[in-house]
Task: inverse folding
């Protein structure tokens, strides 16, 4: 079976990814084509952001295929933890699903169920196109085994999410607790980077580790990502497509002007 993020997470100490907010396979491929393979420390996943990005479900198939065939795993962040939204992302070839705002173990268990076929879960059956984003996978192999490798990720980014995090981490079939630091600060009504915010982040990391789950966090640049991997995070998103484009162009403008 092909390399998926789920297997990469167990074979590499840290998995690096980036955030795709633009519905452009060209952008995804341009970045991934320049990256070394994940086994050499390169990018192993792309977060396809259909919650806050400009991406809709009609873009999933093309994006998932582009990312999958560049040797990385497309993880779709659906707008909400609804069964039909998760099903559409999986049927279009997502290697993993991320849902926003997980507040409880019940929320997490529902997401796991939506990602797995019966008898484990309730995912509806119709994978005509899903295998295409897994290079070399035949349809019957997707049905039989690849779907078991779907990465299930929930975001912890609220006060109830933090208060219930040990119970959430214990949910069977859940793979990753992913911190959205911006929402976490806003939902908890605490200062981003302040003591309560950092204590919540540490608690989520500790809960994931104690339960044998992976811990991940959104980062706002390479320095932020380095700090988080040193803290013990297994999976970090380095930055977003648009932040890098904007920063890069302004840096070049400053150079062009001799600033
Ligand atoms: C957050 O920081 O709230 C996220 O979900 C990442 O965009």
Result:
């Amino acid at each position: 079976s092909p390399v998926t993020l789920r297997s990469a997470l167990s074979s590499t100490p840290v998995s690096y990814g980036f955030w795709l907010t633009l519905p452009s396979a060209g952008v995804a491929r341009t970045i991934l084509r320049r990256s070394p393979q994940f086994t050499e420390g390169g990018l192993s996943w792309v977060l396809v952001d259909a919650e806050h990005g400009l991406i809709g479900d009609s873009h999933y198939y093309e994006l998932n295929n582009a990312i999958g065939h560049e040797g990385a795993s497309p993880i779709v962040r659906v707008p909400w933890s609804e069964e039909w939204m998760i099903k559409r992302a999986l049927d279009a070839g997502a290697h993993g699903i991320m849902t926003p705002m997980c507040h409880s173990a019940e929320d997490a268990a529902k997401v796991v169920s939506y990602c797995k076929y019966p008898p484990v879960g309730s995912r509806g059956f119709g994978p005509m196109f899903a295998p295409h984003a897994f290079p070399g996978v035949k349809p019957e192999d997707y049905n039989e085994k690849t779907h078991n490798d779907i990465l299930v990720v929930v975001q912890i980014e609220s006060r109830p999410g933090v208060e219930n995090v040990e119970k959430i981490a214990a949910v069977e079939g859940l793979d990753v607790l992913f911190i959205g630091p911006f929402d976490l600060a806003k939902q908890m009504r605490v200062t981003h980077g302040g003591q309560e915010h950092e204590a919540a982040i540490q608690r989520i990391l500790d809960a994931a580790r104690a339960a044998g789950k992976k811990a991940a966090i959104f980062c706002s640049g390479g320095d932020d990502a380095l700090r988080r991997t040193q803290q013990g995070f297994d999976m970090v998103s380095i930055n977003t497509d648009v932040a890098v484009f904007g920063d890069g162009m302004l840096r070049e403008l400053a150079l062009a002007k001799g600033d």
Q: What stands out?
A: Residues 155, 157, 180-183, 218 surround 3-hydroxypyruvic acid (CB under 6 Å). The domain at 5-256 is CATH 3.20.20.60 (TIM Barrel). The radius of gyration is 18 Å.
